Amino acid sequence: MGNRVYVTLIDENKSIVIYQHWNGGLDSYLPIVKTAFEINQKNYRKIGIEEFLAFLNKMEFRPEIQESPDAFSWIEENGHYIIDFKNSTMLVKNEQTTLAINNFRDEFNKYNTKKIKEEYRQQNLENYWFGLQNEATIFFMDLPKNKKSKRKAS
Q1: pLDDT in tens, 27-68
Q2: Are 124 and 112 in contact (CB under 8 A)?
Q3: How many other C-beta atoms lie within 10 A of the C-beta of residue 46?
Q4: Domain count of the chain?
């Protein structure tokens, strides 16, 4: 049993779809995406698909790039996330709805309350919201400024 999701990643150069069997919940993605968007908006570094995939691999999330053109419409138990680094937008698509993420922390708290057992919520907040933002900030800020990362996704 996993925590599965399909994710479309978009930057200035391309768009791809990845499948993630583990760590596909919003509690994993919201803190990382928020950090990437903030770094891009402040022009500290240029975070796009390659950099994002390199971070997912560093954290051993094991994203699998999908070759099928149909993958853009596939939905798993956590839906299908659309992360657009060009426009700093994130959408969450499910069978019936599409949600635009406007406040990352509020959506994290909603997910945490709905999906995580009460006795684990504080730990999830510390390890995922704060922990992943910290890990992502360190990783992304260590990349060469305004250059593509030489780190490759698997």
Answers
A1: 999 999 999 999 999 988 899 999 999 999 999 999 999 999
A2: yes
A3: 20
A4: 1
